[in-house]
Each structure stands twice: as structure tokens, then as C-alpha cells.
Amino acid sequence: MTLQQTRTITRTAFFLLFLLAPVFNIFRFDLTLGNFIIFGQAWTLNISDILAGDSLDAAVRIFTRVLLPFFVFVAITGILIWKYGRIYCGWLCPHFSVVEMFNELMLKQLNRVTVWEKANAPSKGVMPKIIVALPSILMAFVWAFGLLGYLLPPKVLFYDLIHLQLGFGASVFLVAATVVFSFDFIFTRHVFCKYGCALGLFQSLIWMANNKALVIKFDRQRAKICRDCSMSTLGKSGSQKPCDAACPMRLPTRNMKRAKFTCTQCGECVSACSQVQKVKMNKQPSLLHWVSGEQAIEVDRPAGSLESFNERNNEKNSERNSESKLNASQKISIKEIK
Ligand code: SF4
Ligand code: SF4
Description:
This protein has 13 helices and five strands. The chain has 338 residues and is mainly α. It folds into three domains: 163 residues, no CATH class; 89 residues, no CATH class; 30 residues. The strands form two sheets. The protein has a three-stranded antiparallel sheet with strand order 1-2-3, with no helix packed on it. A hairpin with a 4-residue loop joins strand 1 and strand 2. It is flat. It binds iron/sulfur cluster (2 copies). The site of one iron/sulfur cluster has 14 residues, from helix 11. One iron/sulfur cluster binds next to helix 10 and helix 11.
């Protein structure tokens, strides 16, 4: 199974969990009862019981039912983010799944991944726009309804929706959330992931603080392969390099860590380069690969450091050498022709 097939499975499973968790009472907050439902059990602090008991009993209950689970959750999540960055975004997040889904649809219908990019080729007529807009609005409605299920009993909600007897509050929520999500899915889905998501930003900041965390590294020693690599290598149109074109977050995939601050560890750039190497270089390994520990430090050394200065010089020299070799061979072949 390929890396991207594995990711499709994890993303799809989490997406289904996101939509169905309230339906199966796995997790929801019931506004009508005023408490959480977790794995079918009402989760409540029973404040009146606690106040009626002695203070030691109250402290034990608050510690075991609130503080302990909270700190365990924060500690495990913190360690994972510290080591692996925004792995939740790339491998589980339902919003990122929608981002990728509509990236593909837009590329197919409008020849560009977002409305803010220049199209590779003009799209014909209004039909492609409708084919993008309708699923976006439908998905926005599914999201709005799914989220409402976290607050009101989903089965009752579903019954009310089918019989067109939703209450005023639920109807307003559904319409407003559908409009907001439609706008997000069509126009600003990447922008939201990059700048609007507090959870994403929080993960990026923790990841950046650990210079040994998992990160995508570019193999600079083989950089000259990139010179004549383009989308046409994979039989596709477009002026970007395949690795950059594949990035759902529209990042400069071969650049240093700070330029990829919002990287979601999706590995799309790695897979795209693997494909290029398969087609072009007789199955050589991808020029982009994950590293951690000491090797990860090299991906984001300060711009002015001696190592990065030397590295940039080596790269330029290697490019110059390959250019002069190319020119020399061209001159020889011109002489041969003459
Ligand atoms: S896909 Fe690979 S070979 Fe092509 S530009 Fe990107 S890193 Fe270089
Ligand atoms: S840089 Fe690579 S791993 Fe990071 S988001 Fe872009 S494609 Fe995914």
C-alpha cells in the first residue's frame, strides 16, 4: 500500500468518525440534557452531589473526572506535536480532507487548485463552475448538520429535518453555517488552514520550537535533477514543479523549514517526486524525504550561518558545472554537425 493510500484510509476513517460520533453517542454535548455523552454514558460532575459530600471526596472527584483526563490528553498531544508537527492536519483533520477533495475537483474542472491561482488553461463555459459550487454547498450543509448533531440529539434532528419541522434556532444555525462553510470551501479553505485555524497555528508553533522534529528534507546533492523537471514529466500541464504543484497547502516544498511553517506532513510532495524519479530516473529515491533528529536541524539552519552559506555556494557551483557541461556538449555536437 502506498503512502497516499494509507493516508486516504486514515482521513476517510476520521471523517466518518467526525460525522457519526454524535449519531452513535461516541461523543457529543446534549444541550437538552445539559451534559456530555461519552461512549453512551452521561458525563457529568454532579455538582450538587459533590457539594453534599465532604471536601476530600469533592477534590478526588474533580481531579479524576476533569483534571487528570485533561492533563493526560494535553501531555500526549503535546508530545506528538513536538515530535511530528501538524501530523493531525495531514492525516486526520476533516477540514484538510475537504481542502484536498476540492483541490482535486477544482483542478479537474477549472484547471487550477484554488480560485486565487492562475489557471493552466481556460475552462469552458459555466458548467465547470457549477460542478465545483454544488458539491461545495452540499458538503457545507453536511458539515453544518453534522456539527448541529454535536449539540442536539442527532436522531431527533434528522427526523425533524426530513419532516421539515426543525425549530427556529436549529434552522438559523443550519443556514448560517452552510453559508459560512460554502464560502470557506470555495474561496478560503487554504487560507483558513494557514492563518485561520487556532489548532493548526498552535501545532505549527510547537513544531517550530523543536528543531529536531520530523520535517521534509530536500536532497541538495542531487538538486540538478530538478532543473529539467516539470509537470510534463508526469504527462500533466502546468508551469510548477510537480512537488510544489502537489502540495495541498501551496508551500515551497524544497525550501527550508521556516518557509514551510504550515506543513501538514501529508507527504504529497514526497510522493510526487517519487513518481518523477520512477518515470525519469529509473526508480531513484525521491529527492524529498522525511528526516528527524540531527538531520532535521540542517533543514532550518539560520539563513546567515556558515553552513548554509557553503551549502548555497555548493549548489550554485554544481548548477554552474552542469550548465557548463551542457554548453560544452552542445558545442561539441554543433561542431560535429558542421
Ligand atoms: S519533483 Fe523532485 S525532481 Fe522534480 S522539482 Fe520536485 S524535488 Fe526536484
Ligand atoms: S510541504 Fe509536502 S508534506 Fe508539507 S504540506 Fe506540502 S506537500 Fe504536504
